[in-house]
Design a protein that fits this description.
This protein has helices at residues 19-22, 32-43, 46-60, 78-89, 100-111, 193-196, 198-215, 231-244, 277-291, 311-323, 325-338, 354-358, and strands spanning 63-68, 118-124, 133-138, 144-146, 154-158, 161-168, 173-176, 222-225, 264-267, 345-350. The chain has 359 residues and is of the alpha+beta class. The chain has a three-stranded antiparallel beta sheet. α3 packs across α5. The longest helix has 18 residues, at 198-215.
Length: 359
């Protein structure tokens, strides 16, 4: 298939970088290598996984509906409303056994993990740009890349068949991604939460591995001061101690002798209780949550500081999350579904807040 030219608007003077070159500089070719890396980053860190799952759980539990943009057209558009409502309820396949929760989880997983975001293929009757959608097929965002071509905005290449490239026409694909990049070499890509707070995730991951190493049943790193033991005796004792560590005899006991003073152990590190691991961990965990627009109280870990959790603090965290992470992602998902609907219909979440209603 011939290379696609970047779309130029009428009268546009600003420069563009050919889309083929965009895949090489920092995201590597093929692009799914980087996507798998970010997926692995989230998978190996419990905090990032929990924040992501909490966000997805919130979005999938919201009530929603398809309604006309003009309320006076409700009766005339009733059949269209019912059709798209059933299509979304069945996960984009009227003849399948999927549901809306499954479809939304698929989309949000890539949206919250990888730079490309989430995408679906739209099968339209007659393959007509304005045709009714017959089926919605979720795509693996790790195999996709933006082209910056208005007519064919997304391309796909699969690892097992690198010579076969599919360019999706604009009416056959729908995409959602987070925080567009302004670097000209990364135009068309996004920035998912793991990339935003990668250093906090890395610190948490390193801290978990270090602390786990302190707790496993292995000798502590340090120096044994044998006081006034002679060199020959010390060498012999070390050799005997190494032999003691081998075999299955449970009655082996290391013994020091020829000392007039008690042998002294000098550790190289600090005891686990002196590291303030819990406070340091919560600090980086809070940064990780902030990357998702959430707080520790959203995953049941509020009040981790010395002051404890307060009612006022919990209320502030909840309001901040609704304005930030939940609110932003809810709006993005609404626009995502609206792009699949006819111009006279719209998708809307029903998010009833009892506290705001009373206020």
């Amino acid at each position: 298939m011939a290379d696609l030219a970047v779309t130029k608007e009428k009268g546009q003077r600003s420069l563009d970088v050919p889309w083929v070159n965009r895949i090489y500089p920092q995201w590597a070719q093929p692009h799914w290598q980087k996507a798998e890396f970010w997926r692995a980053v989230v998978a190996q860190l419990p905090y990032a996984t929990v924040f992501k799952q909490q966000m997805i759980s919130y979005m999938t539990t919201l009530e929603w509906k398809v309604e006309p943009r003009d309320s006076d057209m409700r009766d005339e558009l009733k059949s269209e409303i019912n059709y798209y409502t059933r299509l979304f309820e069945r996960g984009g396949d009227l003849e399948g056994d999927r549901d809306f929760v499954w479809l939304l989880e698929w989309i949000l997983t890539d949206y919250l993990d990888i730079p490309f975001g989430g995408a679906v293929e739209l099968i339209r009757y007659g393959d007509w740009p304005k045709g009714k959608i017959a089926k919605i097929i979720p795509l693996d965002g790790a195999t996709l890349a933006p082209t910056l071509n208005k007519d064919f905005p997304v391309m796909q290449r699969v690892l097992q068949d690198p010579t076969h490239v599919v360019n999706f026409p604009a009416h056959a694909v729908n995409r959602i991604y987070m925080t567009p990049r302004t670097d000209i070499h990364k135009e068309g890509w996004g920035t998912a939460p793991p990339e935003k707070i990668f250093l906090a995730i890395e610190m948490l991951s390193r801290g978990d591995r270090y602390y786990a190493g302190l707790l496993v049943d292995t000798p502590e790193a340090g120096l044994l001061d044998l006081m006034d033991m002679t060199k020959e005796s010390a060498v012999e004792w070390i050799k005997a101690f190494k032999d003691l560590d081998t075999g299955v005899d449970g009655f082996k006991i290391p013994v020091l002798y020829e000392l007039t003073q008690a042998a002294k152990w000098i550790p190289f590190g600090k005891p686990p209780t002196d590291l303030m691991f819990d406070r340091i961990t919560l600090r980086y965990a809070a940064l990780t949550g902030a990357g998702y627009g959430m707080s520790l109280s959203d995953i049941g870990l509020g009040g981790g500081g010395s002051g404890g959790e307060t009612l006022a603090g919990s209320i502030r965290d909840e309001r901040r999350t609704k304005r930030g992470g939940f609110g932003k992602n809810k709006r993005s998902v609404q626009y995502f579904f609206n792009r699949m609907l006819p111009d006279n219909l719209m998708f809307r979440f029903i998010d009833l807040d009892d506290e705001q209603s009373v206020a």
